[in-house]
Amino acid sequence: MSKRQRKSELKSTLWFMPLWYIVGAIGLSAFTFYLDYEVDLSLYFPPAIGFSGETLQVLLSALVGGVLTLSAFTINSLLVALTTFSGQFSSKMLVNFVSDRATQHVLGIFNGSFIYVLLNFLYVTHEEEEYIVATPVLSILTAITAAVTFIYFINHTTTWMQVHNISFNMNDKSKSVQSALEKELKPYRLEKEVERESLPSESNGKVIKSIESGYLQVADFSRLIKQAKRDNSLLRFEARIGEFVLEGTPLLTYWEYGHPLRPDHYFKSIEIGVKQTEIQDLEYGVNKLAEVAIKALGHNDPLTVTNTIHQIADLLKSIGKSTNFSPYLFDRDEELRVILNQKSFRYYLHKGFASIREYANQNSTIMTELITMVSLLSKTMDKEVHNDLWEFAHQTILGFDKYSLYENDCLYILEQLAELAKTTGNQEDYLFLLEYMLERVSSKGASKVPSSS
What we know:
Layout: H1 3-11, H2 16-39, E1 51-52, H3 53-88, H4 93-98, H5 101-123, E2 131-132, H6 134-160, H7 163-185, E3 206-209, E4 214-219, H8 221-231, E5 233-237, E6 244-245, E7 250-256, H9 264-267, E8 270-273, H10 282-298, H11 302-323, E9 328-330, E10 336-339, H12 345-360, H13 364-380, H14 386-398, H15 407-424, H16 427-438
Parallel strand pairs: 5-10
Antiparallel strand pairs: 1-2, 3-7, 4-6, 4-8, 5-7, 9-10
Helix pairs in contact: 2-5, 3-5, 3-6, 5-6, 7-10, 7-11, 10-11, 10-12, 11-12, 11-13, 12-14, 13-14, 13-15, 14-15, 15-16
């Protein structure tokens, strides 16, 4: 497992953050013991503040039970939240909620508080004439902190479960993955053009095949480029990050310019696992949002579907900028070393919206929202993708072949389609789709039909 993947896995587990709180609780308990039994703080405070050993044990036993009850109630609330997420939206969201920093800190505070109060309870004696200050004061403050944290956790859970926050957090997570990937590849991308004629012949290439089945999770591009430079070779990815490969599937094609290279050197820079990860996979983020929308369609929740479509459109806009980058990666001597298997914007557009379109079953409200977002994308993106956007809208409209529409539904769709046609320069094609749509309306209402001019 690579260092980057190990870090991602640790962040997505519940035990890592609480472990640090437990370590901190042990240290704080030792410090408390030092204050009471080495420094003896009771000498510097009035007797009213201190507790006798027997009274303090009664207090600590109550605090241990109280903190443990709060912890159990919090875990129960967490399980209810996770079950709700899994059933109503997507099982992939569980990882997002578990890896959320606030969730992990809350569980850490409860575990740390319980361990701290429990350790204090163990070393307190029963001597009545003994007066202790630091242990009761800090233990009570710890219990108060746990109580306040419980209130915060309930608020955090209910806020996180709201539809707009769910889709926004997933979108934000995918954007951060994309930003990290762009930052990783930026030093190896150059502005210069690479002519296809200058690339080596296919017949001279040799193939490195997968030694196991699974998902291509991570590739260490920096390490691959350095190894290719040492071997004086050129690599081309045959599989995409996030793609499932079988044992024996071609992963890389390489061309040797010097002595023969060892393929096992390159396997050290590629990670294949049993599950998809979001570390370098842009498509995975789009699929997660699309799955939320599809689940919401099954629950007859148009608000969730609409909100998710908005977040997908925002993510597609961000991905569209990445797909415009060159797939060629160079070493520091500006020698071509790696060619990526990079999909076009059209592919991600299809992945994001096509499955929603399919499961919407020609729901005019959802169709209108899809066309609206496609039209909005056309106003914010380069002209290079305008044909892809119009083609998607064109295919969506043709999907109404066996359906009839209410007049107002038809007009709303045509209004957004006219905007898209105007932006992308497809006014003539719009006239064909206009006639096509009006045939599906019993009352045509020709005077209300929007023009694309």
